[in-house]
Amino acid sequence: MRVDIISIFPDYFGPLELSLIGKARQTGRLDVAVHDLRTWTSDVHRTVDDTPYGGGPGMVMRPEPWGQALDAVGPGTLVVPSPVGKPFTQADAHELASLDRLIFACGRYEGIDQRVIDDAADRMPVREVSLGDYVLFGGEVAVIVIMEAIVRLLPGVLGNADSLTEESHAAGLLEAPVYTKPASWRSRDVPEILRSGDHGRIARWRRDQSLLRTASRRPDMMSVYPVDDLDKADRKTLTEGGFQITPPSVAK
Ligand code: 6GU
């Protein structure tokens, strides 16, 4: 996979040389190029912003440098991190991980002139994505987050591929809590069942923990979880945990 990142702060991307992303680059699985947007300015001050039409606070990124930058590095699937984007999900990570060419455009200030995105969309797929309902200074940190989500899905990057199927969000539920040695620490014991060796009971316990965690922490995920995927034991766990199952449907 080839990734081009365009930003006025290329130094933000040092962390992409570390850990498993750095390793994916060293082994050639991933090719990342970071570009300074100011490369494509033509005035002595290398200006990238200007005041917004219609008035209002802050500054807007000018279209000309962005147009030239995207002409130079494109085409590819353009990802624009933005607080007004669609929420970025694990499903998006999987889709982007399947592509050969990604371009990230990091906006700053109040955002990028909308015509840049509209113009790019005539030539390439464009996705405006948000990490959540809060505002960052710019897209740089968001790109690092999105890159982590994508690169760990690339074949051969994670040592143990089972980590991907077992993890939170893979099955539409949050994962159960995890423990390692020692069995007792500060008077807190690892749940006995995890040390029992009974794989059937362990699987049921984890399933119960997943259901209860998801229902309490992420009711939004439960409301879209296919009700038909809940078996009789699942229903018992949730009901006894004080959660209502709506709409009620016939148990399997
Ligand atoms: Cl992806 N970018 C920016 N600038 N702010 C955000 C965001 C992204 N997601 C939430 N807030």
Automatic annotation (TrEMBL):
UniProt key word Transferase: yes
CDD domains assigned: TrmD-like (cd18080)
Main localisation: cytoplasm
Alphabetical GO biological process terms: methylation
SUPFAM superfamilies attached to this UniProt entry: alpha/beta knot
Binding site for S-adenosyl-L-methionine: 107, 131-136
Documented EC number(s): 2.1.1.228
Entry's localization field: Cytoplasm
Entry's Gene Ontology molecular function annotations: tRNA (guanine(37)-N1)-methyltransferase activity
Catalyzed reactions: guanosine(37) in tRNA + S-adenosyl-L-methionine = N(1)-methylguanosine(37) in tRNA + S-adenosyl-L-homocysteine + H(+)
Keywords assigned: Cytoplasm, Methyltransferase, S-adenosyl-L-methionine, Transferase, tRNA processing
Family affiliation: Belongs to the RNA methyltransferase TrmD family.
Complexes and interactors: Homodimer.
Chain's role: Specifically methylates guanosine-37 in various tRNAs.
Record's protein name: tRNA (guanine-N(1)-)-methyltransferase
Gene: trmD
